[in-house]
Structures are given as C-alpha cells and as structure tokens.
Write a structure and sequence with these properties.
This is Serine/threonine-protein phosphatase. By secondary structure, the chain is an alpha+beta fold. 28% of the residues lie in helices and 27% in strands. A hairpin with a 5-residue loop joins strand 5 and strand 6.
Amino acid sequence: MTDLHIDAALLSDVGRKRSMNQDCGLIGHGLFLVCDGMGGGVAGQEASSRTLQRFDALAQQPTRSKEMIGATFETAQQETLRLGAEYGGVAGTTATGLILADASALADAADDDDGFGFHQRLGHETGDGNVWYVVNVGDSRTYHLGRTPDGSAWEASSLVQITRDHSRRQEVIDTGAMLPELAEQLVPRNIITQCVGAPEGIEPDFFRADLTGRFIVCSDGLHSEIDNASIAAIAAAHETPQDAVNALVAAALDAGGRDNVTVIVVDVTKADGHDGITDDDAGNDDSWSYVKIAHNEDIFDVDDSTLDTLRTVTARSNAGQNGK
C-alpha cells in the first residue's frame, strides 16, 4: 500500500472591476471544482452556487462513475434552466475540476484555520485502477504540472492543459479555420459554446488522469489575464498549494483583474512513512498521462488498446498549443 498525500488550497477574488463574485470553488473528499457564473446572464452567482451544491452532494459518495457525474451535471443543468426561467433570461455557469473515482480509501481531512486549506491521505494499491476524472463544461480550465527530474521542485516546462475550452475561439482553432495567432486577434475569447444552463443542452468533457502531480483548476479570470507560460512559472515557483494560489491570484489582479478569479491547486505526492518523497518516487514521473474519455466509454474501458494510447499521445502533444 502506498500513501498518497493530497494537499490543496482554494482562493477566490472578486477582481478589480466587478462588484460581485460569481465564481465559487469546492475542495474536499476527493472532489475539487471551480464554477464561474456567466457575467452576461442572469443569476450567475446563484447558478454557480447551485451547481457546486450538486457536486458537493456527489462528494459524499465513496465511489464515483462517469454515469454518476453525468447525472450530477444533468441535475445542475435542469436547476439552472429553471433558474433562468425564473429570472426571465438565461442563467449559466462553467464547471471544471477533479473527481476521484474511488474515495473510499481517503483518510479524514484536516482543514487549515482559514477553512481554505486541505490535507488528506489516500491509500493506494498499485494497479487498483483509481484515477481522477477531469471534467469540463465551458472555458474554466484544469492543468497539470510534474516534478523536476531530481524531484526537488515543480517543473514549469511540464505544464499540460488537460481541458479544452468550449469557446468560439477554440472551435475555430480546432477545426483549422484559423491559426491560433489569428484567432486570438479576431475571435473574442469570452464567446463560449457550452455552459451549465445553456438552453440547447450540454455535453461535458470527461478525461481520465493519473493521480500524481500538481493540478491547477481555475476560472477564466486567471488564464484571460496571464498566459499559460506565466501560469506554469508562477505555479512551479511555490512549493505549497496555498502559496501557489496566493501568487496566481495576485498575478491575475496585477495584470488587470478584469474578472472574478478563482484558483485551486491540488498536489498529489507519493510519500514514505516519514512524509518524505521516496527515492523510487522522486522526480517528474514521465509515465503520467491523461486521455479523453469517449461518449460511450468509462475509465475502465480506456486502459490498454492502441486507439486509446494514440488518443493519449495526441492529447499530450496538443497540450502545448492550448496557451495564448
């Protein structure tokens, strides 16, 4: 049995231009999620809050499947549609983050004094199949960082953007209609193609990701102000999740803070009985991978086939193209 240490921190700020914070975040019991209420819609704050409540209920379940997560999204979708009708418009929110497939081996959590820090221990057997679901609807994002080869620090150059924005800009890039540089000039970043509460419905993205590393979950108030290279450099420069979220939010505010900004940093590290990184586990684990889960698949359907391996490699090689 290997002990994995899960350390996380959350920070949300209204920013320098908005009067209300429509972002919210959740950390706890193997579920880490950021929701960003739609500023142009009605009741964005309530839409994000209600969606988070649905996922908080899911966090109480010891095991989670794609079907359960999908049902949670659908419940949030229907509630948000009703909320929009209540207010005579469209209410909406993005949602992205990490959901542990099997939380039954998690030890009791211990929160920091401010209520935003989190530490938990996860018992992990090699080959037990436990992984993260990474989920996304909208243009909030989830990233991953690995360790340097000697294990002494986080490696900025290892940044991978796991999620793909559901936005008009990303759409024209993905279809090849425009090169990224041209799309950035001609297509507004904030035109999104999916959100919880969209009248035309939602199709959440699901990814399977290996457990270890540093994960950064954020609203677009971060990545709209600073590019991926800056996110990587700042996140890698701080050893603790709390210091990392503080620095990332501060950077977004210093860059203009034109939107609400919410950041969660989750570190998952292997440790020996003395809470130190073991020799075998030190360093940047080159075997870390993630893969997008197809519509008719779940995590246990995407283990070994050639097609899935190719899809994983493609996802990893494309990750560097997601930045601004």
